[in-house]
Amino acid sequence: MVKIYDKAFLGDKVQPLAESNLNIASAAVLYGLSVYTVFPIHIDDNGKLLAFRVKDHFERLINSARIIGIDTFEQEWHVERFVSAIKETVKANNVRDNAFVRVTVHVNELVPGTRSRGLQTILSIFIYDAVPIIPQNGARLKTSVWRRIPDNAIPSRAKVNGAYVNSVLAKQDAIDSGYDDCIFLDANGHVCELSAANIFIVRNGTLITPGTTSDLLEGINRKTILDIAKDLNIDTVERDIDLTELYIADEAFACGTSAYLAPVIEIDARRIGDKKTGPITKEISKKYLDILHGRDDKYRHLVTVLD
Ligand code: PMP
Predict the structure, then answer these.
(1) Domain 7-129, CATH class in plain words
(2) Helix (H) or strand (E) holding 305
(3) Helix, strand or coil for residue 245?
(4) Could you tell me which CATH class the domain 139-292 is placed in?
(5) Which protein residue's CA is at the shortest distance from atom 4 of ligand 1?
(6) Comparing 7-129 with 139-292, is the CATH topology the same?
(7) Domain map (residue ranges) of the chain
(8) pTM of the prediction?
(9) Are 70 and 116 in contact (CB under 8 A)?
């Protein structure tokens, strides 16, 4: 079991995690009507706690709520209040290790029926150990028997809790088959993403990832990786990817807060590259980890000092 810190933020204050509950009659519980985000904190070389791209996470939370029609959150919260609640929660838990911070906006209105507008919301924050969801030294993926939910059913662009049943089905199917995670395809057979991470491949020196209209979450790390690649003069393309392109990719990796940057060494029993971390993946990964830990001056503005 991953370690969860024992103080949480709920509503407007820090309190014991064990007492941080939602009503069983709330829309959050009944319909999975919550939106969330998760971002990492790391200790830098001077012992400072750094949170990665907090403002972008706040913005995505707002956008997720907007897509779903949860309109009260935006009226009650702004980024300064958001950062201050995070700082308060981190301080109360005396966090001194790398950790993930999960922030959720729950619709806690009781039995509202299947609607979203004008309903009461409550924000929660809890912190847990930064244990990656897939192996960092070579992940094995399986194409899922489950399709990615399309934008006109439940949009993947909105990080809405209820939609994660789709990820649960696909991830469990992959685990049941002896793999680490899944590859989701859309209705046309194009590659979308993993259960909770974005995907990149390298072909002939070009870094390729599905575009943001490919039924995927607009990952904050995905954007970071694209910026890093441009900085390193690596050609990048955002376009549809066929499943069979994965099979013949020179390199592949997954990225996301909880996946970090994980090289992919096998997909559907086919080896990728020579089953080792490829040179472009290695180059991007080094810079990415430097940025997360505040070691890259050019990107230092992306981290917020929490203590
Ligand atoms: N796709 C899905 C479905 C996810 O759940 C995540 C993790 N939040 C990602 C991609 C990666 O997003 P991010 O880089 O913002 O963590």
Answers:
(1) alpha beta
(2) strand 303-305
(3) helix
(4) alpha beta
(5) 196
(6) no
(7) 7-129, 139-292
(8) 0.97
(9) yes
